[in-house]
Amino acid sequence: MKILIPFLLLFFTTHSIGQNSYADSLILYANQTEGVKKAQVLEDISIEYRFADPYLSLTYGEKALAQARFCGDSVEVGNSFNCIGIANHIQGKYELALSFYLKALKEFEEKKEPKGVASTNLNIGIVYADRGMYDLSLKHYKQALKLYESGAGDKRSIANAINNIATIYSNLNKYSDALAYQYKALKIRNDLNDSSGIATSLMNIGNIYLGMNHAEKSLNYYLQSLEIERILGNDRNVALTLSNIGEVYFQLKDYKNAIKISEECIQISKKMDFKPQLKQAYQVLSESYKDLKQFEKALDYHELYANIKDSIFSEESASSIAEMQTKYDTEKKDAENHLLKQETEIKNLQLSKNKTWIIILFLGLALIAVSALLLFNRYQIKKKDNKELEQKNMEITFQKKEMTDSINYAKKIQNAILPSEQMVAEALTDRFVLYKPKDIVSGDFYWLEKKDDVVLFAAVDCTGHGVPGAMMSMLGLNLLSQAVNEKGLIQPAAILKHLDVGIYQSLRKTSEENAMKDGMDLSLCALNLKTHELQYSGAYNPVWIVKSGTNEMIEIKADKKPIGANSSGEEGVYKNHTIQLEKGDCIYLFTDGFADQFGGKKGKKFMYRPLKEILISVSQKSMQNQLNALSNALYSWQGDHDQVDDILIIGVRV
User: Fold this and answer.
1) Average pLDDT over every residue of 438-457
2) DSSP secondary structure letters along 393-421
3) Is the dihedral of CA 47, 53, 58, 61 positive or negative?
4) Is the dihedral of CA 558, 560, 564, 566 positive or negative?
5) What are phi and psi of 451, to 5 degrees?
6) pLDDT digits over 519-556, tens only?
7) How far apart are the C-alpha atoms of 506 and 483, rounded to whole Å?
8) pLDDT digits (tens, 9 = 90+) for 375-395
9) Do residues 165 and 138 make contact, with C-beta atoms less than 8 angstroms apart?
10) For the CA atoms of the chain, what is the radius of gyration?
11) What angle do CA 154, 163, 323 make, to 5 degrees?
12) Using CA atoms, how far apart are residues 290 and 74, in angstroms rounded to an integer?
């Protein structure tokens, strides 16, 4: 049952995620930067969240991958693949993690990036170790160590690779080799004053002694490790250490402490969704209660142990992992053989001095001379054509770059006028915003203003997306702010009336035949923070409300009249709804992008009913968990399908 701690080595981060202060600063910085640097910051955010929130880690890893691909940077593409692999690895999705690690390895090998090759080999080795494939794991660990020792990594990297090699020797019951490597890693970490690494080495040495049946020695090292991990606030390693301490107490027949420690381990592991630690703690509890003759409890925990074991390990998954490695090794070997064959053929051709070829060569010279005159003439013509074509390609490339630069600048402008994260947080303390533009700029936008005790907020869907939609969003944002700040309007229906007239006057000053058919759908709320009274008015987009402590969803329908779409130019009339809410009620505003997204096995739209079901099921959870649930549902549904529209959902808890 012992678990030795290996290292996932894409980045070396030591920041505590406890208060998310460092992660928050990274997120703020990511919103202010562009290019390859933005991809790197997104990768750092993914790594920061890897243990605290693997689902959020996955989201930022995918964002980093998209940015790296946009910039065409192969190294950052490889780093992003590693981020996504680590996020899946932490969740126990070994097969999926390995697929991304192998993609990362391919990128780094093609780019001849030794540091990336080394860290990815380390990550791959951990997957094989977790699956019990120790020979493959040891192979990848030693490849990583060799690269680090040749200059691809610092002393910390070398210590981490040595640590991982020691874990394999321990699992192979080669305890003397394991202790030698582990003490070597501990010495390096002591020299570096690396508290996290020291705690890991102490725990792993304890595991080795546990494997040698030296339970009391093992307990001593575990307790030293636990003390450091508690100070560092590393819940994952605290849970690992507790699970192993529970096993030691079980071996010493100290069932009281074994049960106490294992229950604490379960409490932490459930919060963090650490399945391997849960499995080990359930097994200790089952065996302890069995020895105490409390067979009912023993059976209960054994069933929990068996269920979680089945969810982590399956023969099918192990087979798939082996097949992936075999395929990768085969393709790599074939490529090497093909290259070697080509080199041999070229060498043989160069060494050949057969007289027959010499004769043929001289006979061909005459034909070549004649042909050369014809070819030279054709070459001159083609050279001229190519020059003209190259000039046109340069012009097209320049025009494309100017267009892309302009759109990226428009994105900066659009982001600048959207409500800032700080502004939203100050006005609505308990909320989330899921905002995923289809293109660089978006036709969906969210808006917020605060007047005394009333917060006005809206989710708006303009006609189109991309640049046309973004231009409409600029107009909409300006008119909404004008309605509140210049006209002094706070009633949602009155604001929609002002918006309707403003859109018409801006876009429909020509004759009916030439009139633009652009407009916008939206839902607009005014929430009194003291009285909890909610006023709402909408154009096609409703508002959903889930009452606190219930599974009841209330839908307040919108007027079926889009903003700015009336043909006569007369002011539209929108109904104002007033609802008295209670503390804890959740309000949801949205555009149609999420429900209209194609995906699933049959490539159909997601639709509104499943969206309602998700929101109802998570409405009593924290807003961050609600955002994670929506992001995961969208990612799973969309699969390989392209995003078809801008996506916007706003959630607010009263």
Assistant:
1) 92
2) HHHHHHHHHHHHHHHHHHHHHHHHHSPPH
3) negative
4) negative
5) -125, 105
6) 899 999 999 999 999 999 999 999 999 999 898 899 99
7) 15
8) 777 777 877 777 777 767 666
9) yes
10) 31
11) 100
12) 55
